[in-house]
Write a structure and sequence with these properties.
Structural class of chain B: alpha/beta
Number of helices of chain A: 15
Number of strands of chain B: 13
Helix content of chain A: 25-40%
Structural class of chain A: alpha/beta
Distance between the termini of chain B: 48 Å
Strand content of chain A: 15-25%
Oligomer: heterodimer
Helix content of chain B: 25-40%
Radius of gyration of chain A: 23 Å
Chain lengths: 411, 380
């Protein structure tokens, strides 16, 4: 397997607050292959957006970002200088935010806003110095004959905006919400990116427009081989859009895998609970399942599983630090679950509840913790990457059948 | 007993309404136009322009019934909700509540109506006064309507909080100290405080996370069972609407294009708009990458809606001139009531306008339902 486009290992972001240290992202690992659509799904406050901002280094001094690795196309993003990072942002990696009205400049025409990105990230041969840009912005405007303007019009056409020449001269408030989000996508394409990070790109839109925008994103991803990191709270969007998905809860990834595996064979109790709690268009349940309780406080977050207080299957090991367990996945993608129920020595009965915990199980957990503690250099610690895991030896083989045997009847 | 809202004897206003005659709330020919802002010259010489937010809506809500109102943003569902609760005065049409005409109610009569019709808003943060404690917010309607004061009020508040899943200790906290789900519970407690008969809930769960959404929906259903409430549930999320509603009305550009029992709307949708909307929902258990939306473009402006059928500019099943020439009226679909009939066996019958249970649709397709439609069955 070739190196993934984006490889994030052990990302941890924290903020100092008056009450203590808030851990917004707590040791997450994932990778995104070229052309892949990777979803991060979770409730508000789970740390999805901070994950994206950390990768893009957009947190400034507000947060502390630590990671074993954040490698994009072989480059370590965390070691770049700010100016090198700036050329990557909007270029190799671009971002789409939730609300297109606030991410577009209300006093610049949309053509101007896209052309500016083209000039800064392309080789248009146009001057991009401070005074040149100021003159364009406030005096002359971008010449409609220039390469950057023509490219802007072309991009507007690519994202399905009718009459792009005319639209390019309009301001954001003259467009509908769906059209604005298309403009933002055009802007994201302007730097010829290989990765687009889309943070709730359709949350502000109606279902019919949402479908149009998601379609557009998928088509562009296919057409130009662009990878997408899609951040959303909407499980339906994930199901229909993503190749792989990570389920995030209280700043940690609970379960990562192919969408089909996650939705049809969820192993983590939180994923199960989440899937059961959404009303579906084709079910006739009178009452929705509810995950009791609330999300734990992320300030001075205790170690161990953050879901254990709300989990109906919680048992003794749940206050121990979480490790990654790989479960058998029907597809070729690996399916990673961070739940101690998956420990091969933990007896799980038909209902999914855990019986007596043996010393063997504790010892197995200690071994895994030890392996993970050795850091990214140890071959076995490579997360989410199936091929790296297999050469890690037998100790970390997939959890045995008895570990996930009880999961079949729960949902 | 039925309370005459136009009289001043308010003592019986909280009693449960009769279960026999007619719906609890009936709206007939409701219109709500807003004048657009115009310049000084236009004000004197120009033609006034109106946003036709709601343009001729008939609907009825029965007792202990939930009517779901769905549509895209800008279709007028929120405006309609506000007219139904008399927060807006309708530009035309009549509203009847429990047999009384409430269209022109004001003063004391309106205050008594408020005791029976309550509203829950979308954003619990902006609908709760940040400077008042939760107890003060929920207690205010008790004072205004002389329901309880002093210790009795405190007891009532404790009961109310318990009812919506909050604790007594929450009474003295301010809105910012609560999570989104808890804030919406406060909003529900406030609506519940006066023991209303009807609650208009405007997107009550759209601002909430899925797991919290489920808690609030379950709470609303439980309260309905316990107190015999009626709901008008306004939402853009079809799955949520399907879950909570008994009957559903689909709105497009200020008009209802299809209404009926939820089994009919979701099992046998007739209007191309309903079909397209159902088709657009991202499904958790559907096939992947199946976004081919039938809906192109955006809804037209409600200032100058298209002639004939308002949906014709986006309709995937556009028939031609007849869609542009004649405005389709709501007509009953025969053979409804939950069973899925293939579209080619649907016959048209006339509506008598009285039975609101009927599956009715405003579309010219209904007249030629023997013919094969352009779009597939959205549920397949």
């Amino acid at each position: 397997m070739t190196d993934p486009l984006l490889d994030v290992r052990g990302l941890k972001t924290s903020f100092e607050t008056g009450q203590g240290t808030l851990t917004a992202v707590d040791g997450i690992s994932f990778n995104i292959e070229s052309g892949e659509v990777f979803g991060v799904v979770g409730e508000s406050g789970s740390g999805k957006s901070v994950t994206a901002l950390s990768v893009m280094r957009l947190l400034d001094d507000a947060g502390t970002v630590e990671a074993d690795a954040v490698r994009f196309d072989g480059t370590d993003l965390l070691s770049l200088t700010e100016s090198e990072m700036r050329s990557i942002r909007g270029g190799e990696i671009s971002m789409i935010f939730q609300d297109p009205m606030t991410s577009l400049n209300p006093v610049m025409t949309i053509g101007e806003q896209i052309a500016e990105v083209v000039r800064h990230h392309g080789d248009a041969g146009e001057r991009t110095g401070f005074w040149s840009e100021m003159t364009r912005k406030y005096v002359t405007g971008t010449s409609t004959d220039s390469h950057s303007w023509q490219r802007a019009v072309e991009l507007l056409e690519t994202v399905g905006i009718p009459e792009p020449e005319k639209r390019a001269t309009e301001y954001p408030h003259q467009l509908s919400g769906g059209m604005r989000q298309r403009v933002v996508i055009a802007q994201a394409l302007a730097g010829d990116p290989s990765l687009i990070i889309a943070d709730e790109p359709t949350t502000a839109l109606d279902v019919s427009i949402e479908a149009q925008i998601l379609n557009e994103l998928l088509e562009l991803s296919d057409e130009f081989g662009i990878s997408v990191l899609l951040i959303t709270h909407d499980l339906g969007v994930v199901r229909e859009t993503c190749d792989r998905v990570a389920v995030m809860y209280a700043s940690e990834f609970m379960e990562t895998g192919h969408v089909d595996d996650i939705f049809e064979d969820p192993h983590h109790p939180y994923t199960e609970g989440l899937l059961a709690s959404i009303p579906r268009i084709d079910d006739d349940r009178e009452w929705l399942s509810v995950i009791e309780g609330t999300v734990p406080d992320l300030i001075d977050k205790p170690s161990g599983c953050p879901f254990r207080d709300r989990c109906e299957y919680a048992f003794e090991l749940c206050d121990r630090p979480l490790v990654e367990y790989e479960v058998d996945a029907p597809g070729t993608e690996s399916h990673i679950v961070r739940c101690h129920r998956e420990n091969e020595h933990v007896p799980v009965d038909e209902s999914g509840h855990v019986g007596e915990v043996t010393d063997e199980a504790v010892a197995a957990l200690e071994r895994r913790l030890d392996v993970e503690a050795r850091g990214p250099d140890a071959p076995t610690a490579a997360p989410v990457d199936a091929s790296a895991r297999t050469d890690g030896g037998d100790r970390l083989g997939p959890a045995e059948a008895d570990a996930d045997g009880g999961d079949g009847d729960e949902y | 007993m039925s309370t005459d809202l136009s009289e001043t004897s308010g003592a019986t206003a909280g009693d449960p309404p009769d279960a026999d005659d007619g719906p609890l709330l009936r709206a007939t020919g409701i219109q709500k136009y807003f004048a657009t802002e115009t310049g000084l010259l236009d004000r004197f010489f120009g033609e006034p322009q109106y946003v036709k937010a709601v343009d001729g809506v008939d609907l009825a809500v029965g007792e202990r019934e939930t009517l779901g109102l769905v549509g895209e943003s800008g279709c007028g569902k929120t405006t309609l909700g506000r007219v139904l609760s008399r927060l807006y005065d309708p530009s035309a049409g009549t509203l009847e509540f429990d047999g009384d005409d409430i269209t022109g109610l004001s003063g004391d009569g309106l205050k008594r109506l408020r005791k029976r019709v309550q509203v829950i808003f979308q954003d619990p943060m902006s609908s709760l006064n940040p400077r008042k404690t939760a107890g003060e917010i929920v207690g205010k309607p008790l004072e205004v309507h002389d329901i309880a004061a002093g210790d009795a009020k405190r007891d009532r508040l404790v009961d109310l909080f318990d009812e919506v899943g909050l604790q007594e200790s929450h009474l003295d906290r301010y809105p910012h100290e609560f999570s989104g789900g808890q804030r919406q519970r406060i909003g529900i407690a406030r609506a519940l405080a006066v023991e209303p008969d009807l609650i208009i809930a405007d997107e009550p769960v759209s601002a909430l996370d899925v797991s919290v959404q489920a808690q609030i929906i379950n709470l609303m259903k439980r309260l309905q069972d316990k107190y015999g409430l009626s709901y008008v549930f306004i939402a853009h999320d079809l799955s949520v609407v399907k879950h909570i509603s008994d009957r559903v009305a689909v709105m497009y550009l200020g008009q209802i294009v299809e209404r009926g029992r939820k089994e009919d709307i979701f099992g046998n949708p007739q209007h191309p708009y309903t079909r397209s909307l159902l088709h657009s929902i991202p499904r958790v258990d559907g096939d992947r990458k199946r976004h081919e939306s039938l809906l192109e473009g955006n809804p037209p402006s409600p200032i100058d809606p298209p002639s004939g059928c308002r949906f014709r500019t986006r309709c995937p099943e556009y028939l031609g001139d007849e869609c542009a020439d004649a405005e389709p009226q709501l007509q009953a679909v025969a053979g409804a009531s939950g069973t899925v009939e293939p579209p080619d066996r649907v016959e048209t019958v006339s509506t008598d306008g009285e039975s609101s249970d009927e599956h009715a649709v405003a579309c010219h397709w209904l007249d030629k339902s023997g013919e094969r439609r352009a779009s597939q069955d959205p549920m397949s």
